[in-house]
Amino acid sequence: MKILVGYKRVVDYNVRITVKPDGSGVATEGVKLSANPFDDIALEEALRLREKGVATEVVVVGIGPADLQAHLRNGLAMGANRAIHVVAPDAVQPLTAARVFLKLVEKEQPQLVIVGKQAIDDDCNQTGQMLAALWNRPQATFASKVEVADGKARVTREVDAGLETLEVDLPAVITTDLRLNEPRFIKLPDIMKAKSKPIETVEFASLGVEPGDHLRITRYAPPPKRQKGVMVKDVAELVAALKAKGLL
Amino acid sequence: MSERETMEYDVVTVGAGPAGLAFAIRLKQLKQDVRVCVIEKASTIGAHILSGAVIEPQPLDALLPGWRDHPPPICVPAAEDEFWWLTRTGGFRLPTPPQMKNHGNFIVSLGALCAWLAPQAEALGVEIYPGFAAADLLYDDQGAVCGVRIGDMGVAKNGSHKPGYTQGIDIKAPLTVLAEGARGHLTKRLVAKYRLDAESDPQTYSIGIKELWQVPAGRVKPGKIVHSVGWPADSRTYGGSFLYHLDKDRVALGYVSGLDYTDPLYQPYEAFQQWKHHPHVKPLLEGGEILSAGARAIVTGGWQSLPKVEMPGALLIGDGAGLLNVPKIKGTHQAIRSAMLAAEHIAEKSTAAGWDARLRASPAMEELRRVRNIKPGFKKGVYFGMLNAAWETITDGFSPWTWRNKADYGTLEKLGRYEQPKRDYVERTLPPRDRLAGVYFAATQHDEDQPIHLRVADTQVCVTRCAEEYGNPCTRFCPAGVYEMVEDEAGKRLQINAANCVHCKTCDIKDPYEVITWVTPEGGSGPNYQNL
Ligand SMILES: Cc1cc2nc3c(=O)[nH]c(=O)nc-3n(C[C@H](O)[C@H](O)[C@H](O)COP(=O)(O)OP(=O)(O)OC[C@H]3O[C@@H](n4cnc5c(N)ncnc54)[C@H](O)[C@@H]3O)c2cc1C
Ligand SMILES: Cc1cc2nc3c(=O)[nH]c(=O)nc-3n(C[C@H](O)[C@H](O)[C@H](O)COP(=O)(O)OP(=O)(O)OC[C@H]3O[C@@H](n4cnc5c(N)ncnc54)[C@H](O)[C@@H]3O)c2cc1C
Ligand code: SF4
């Protein structure tokens, strides 16, 4: 069985995000980019299924500009068999991503698509669900445990009340939550080996997916700065200060 | 346990700074078929690089003719130069010393420059591995260096193996090139093992603390370069600032303190923050925001401290060898220059032997010889230092004498035995509030559950002798507030907040009892500098 994994490149979670002075977006020049953490988890799960003998092939998919290749190589170094690079000027919005995935699903015929529950840049939490709907197949989102057997996936999900276990028929879409697994460290020799693994490039335009972003972003703004605090000498001064602000 | 994996190369290079990358590029240009790799502890290339940086472009011209047609992302031609003597409330402009004239130079982000060099090296077939720390050296039966060992991943604080434990591999090569920058931790071991400094003075250092600011539109004059001495440094402390105007309303600014300072109560971080409040600087920054910040040691021993740069199986280049030109505060051109020369040496001779003589006979070394007495002159105070610098400059280093260097760990005075300089510090208003707020802009990251990478050989001395004699200077010289003296039920003890470390190496240099040893944490840990 084949597994398709969404592998999106985002601004690294350690990076302190700054908004461009003109409010047109988030500054990315000189900023460290890395795999969406939920996608590393998705890839790890796919690799574990392959190591258990459940899956035979793991394919990572990235949608984005030409320099995405290095990022996909990381996915290959982690252990994916091959990569598909859909060349688009930029990362796309969830509906477009889902449509791209659908085209790839039609061609690759995977039994399982695993994507992150969300990408940490836009936090949309939509791609997996939209793909399932377009594909007309079951979905199991926010997975914290996955077992696959007999053409079915048993997926444990984290819900408000606790844990919920679903069973879905394959093919299906699974989206990953944080506690599903801990992704492995990449080993240096595997980076070498990844260089000879294939990356197939597909022009976005050739897929026949209607381009166009369905959401228009009008402006980015950083959260308001915290006001500077004032030091008070004693309780009396504190009470007076709170009164002056109308809080007491 | 399964046997450790091994990879073999013709040359393994430690450190993807300008030296390591330039070395690999030049070697591949000369010899297409050599297999060369570069190991870098930062998670991405450039993320641990912190510099000024105004660079002299000639070595880059030699390495990559045509680079000017596709320059690195931040690359602003130097325009006007200013040099100031500051007092607390004002100052006066001094003639710019010839070493500080920058016509023809470029202001860059050295981190961004390295990130731009790396793919060019890869295009030539160099294999670059960011996210892997060279944690140890390998030796063959004859005692020659024969490669490096990569640090393990997934080791818990107590030394046990976590579920994702991944053993580091051995990289074997007939030649190891150390390009670790100032105070490389493997370089330090090699200097001790092969007694490379037997015939040179001890190495000396400064600490540079830097911030990159985005300021309101209209204030920045791209290409303007301002250096200062004087306030807030007292006359016995070697301290000076740099302020470089970039494009897009950004300024790079920093403060350099000589680590030969004598007052154990001195705080390099505070000196930097004070200088930012000088009336010449504060109006530029007010209302702006910090984009990134950090700190890094600068190697300053120069000519008389240059250790032997070769040993069986290995050689030193760049700041790791100690080639920075102090009066210019420039080391990048020297790093690239020495790297290229080393590559030429290897391409011809295929051995480290002879590298020391070749470097010493080169223009890079001649450049250091001429300025060898300038920094040591500042030991006698800033006024003498400035006059001496003028003398040495006019005479072009022809003085028949050479002043000696002394190791920085031994320069502190004991508490109560000296007159503490008066510090007319001002009340601060600009961010960051303190070191912890500052570390946030370094975006430094270490998995907390890993062995502490700041090894303190004797923590008893912290509570006894050090507290009494020097008042625990580690709590003040570390720019990231890693060291704290805390008191709890168990009594007074040293607490090491290793996760905040920005890999500047100051503690390894300045600790007066030489008990602190910096070792590599898990690969990929450490700061995530953006455009520093
Ligand atoms: C009230 C509220 C509370 C919240 N609380 C939490 C919380 O407690 N914890 C928490 O973690 N989040 C929380 N969220 C965040 C919320 O879950 C997000 O809004 C949303 O998850 C994620 O969107 P996304 O951009 O990741 O999704 P999508 O953009 O749909 O991405 C999902 C996946 O699609 C694939 N994909 C998309 N684009 C590409 C591409 N270009 N190339 C390759 N693959 C791609 C990737 O696999 C990706 O992981 C909260 C949100 C709200 C509104
Ligand atoms: C504040 C400041 C201002 C400066 N201003 C200027 C200036 O204006 N102009 C100028 O020309 N120079 C300037 N310099 C000096 C310049 O930055 C250095 O000379 C130059 O960076 C030296 O290059 P290098 O390659 O030898 O070392 P570095 O640039 O220090 O690079 C060493 C690399 O090796 C990596 N590394 C180290 N040890 C290991 C290990 N064991 N395993 C894996 N990786 C490792 C490090 O992470 C780093 O990436 C300045 C320096 C500072 C600190
Ligand atoms: S612990 Fe040492 S190396 Fe780390 S930031 Fe502090 S002084 Fe620098």
UniProtKB/TrEMBL annotation, chain A:
Q: Name one GO molecular function term.
A: electron transfer activity
Q: Which UniProt keywords apply?
A: Electron transport, Transport
Record domain Electron transfer flavoprotein alpha/beta-subunit N-terminal: where: 23-211
Biological process terms in GO annotation = carboxylic acid catabolic process
Q: Which InterPro entries does this chain map to?
A: ETF_a/b_N (IPR014730), ETF_b (IPR012255), ETF_beta_N (IPR033948), Rossmann-like_a/b/a_fold (IPR014729)
Gene3D superfamilies linked? HUPs
Q: What cofactor does this chain's UniProt record say it requires?
A: AMP
What does the record give as the function of this protein?
Answer: The electron transfer flavoprotein serves as a specific electron acceptor for other dehydrogenases. It transfers the electrons to the main respiratory chain via ETF-ubiquinone oxidoreductase (ETF dehydrogenase).
Family per record:
Belongs to the ETF beta-subunit/FixA family.
Q: Its quaternary structure? A: Heterodimer of an alpha and a beta subunit.
The protein in question is named: Electron transfer flavoprotein subunit beta
Source organism: Mizugakiibacter sediminis
Q: What is the lineage of its organism?
A: Bacteria, Pseudomonadati, Pseudomonadota, Gammaproteobacteria, Lysobacterales
Automatic annotation (TrEMBL), chain B:
Start and end of every 4Fe-4S ferredoxin-type domain? 452-488, 492-521
Q: Which InterPro entries match?
A: 4Fe4S_Fe-S-bd, ETF-QO, ETF-QO/FixC_UQ-bd, ETF-QO/FixX_C, FAD/NAD-bd_sf
The answer to whether the entry has keyword Oxidoreductase is yes
Q: Which PROSITE patterns match?
A: 4FE4S_FER_2
Where does this protein have coiled-coil stretches? Answer: none
- What molecular function does GO assign, one term? 4 iron, 4 sulfur cluster binding
Could you state one GO cellular component term attached to this entry?
Answer: membrane
**Per its UniProt entry, what is the enzyme's top EC class, as one word?**
oxidoreductase
The cofactor named in the record is: FAD; [4Fe-4S] cluster
Reaction catalysed by this enzyme: a ubiquinone + reduced [electron-transfer flavoprotein] = a ubiquinol + oxidized [electron-transfer flavoprotein] + H(+)
The record describes how the cofactor is bound as: Binds 1 [4Fe-4S] cluster.
Q: EC number(s) in its UniProt entry?
A: 1.5.5.1
Keyword terms = Electron transport, FAD, Flavoprotein, Iron, Iron-sulfur, Membrane, Metal-binding, Oxidoreductase, Transit peptide, Transport, Ubiquinone
Record's subcellular location: Membrane
Described function? Accepts electrons from ETF and reduces ubiquinone.
Protein name from the UniProt record: Electron transfer flavoprotein-ubiquinone oxidoreductase
Q: Lineage of the native species?
A: Bacteria, Pseudomonadati, Pseudomonadota, Gammaproteobacteria, Lysobacterales
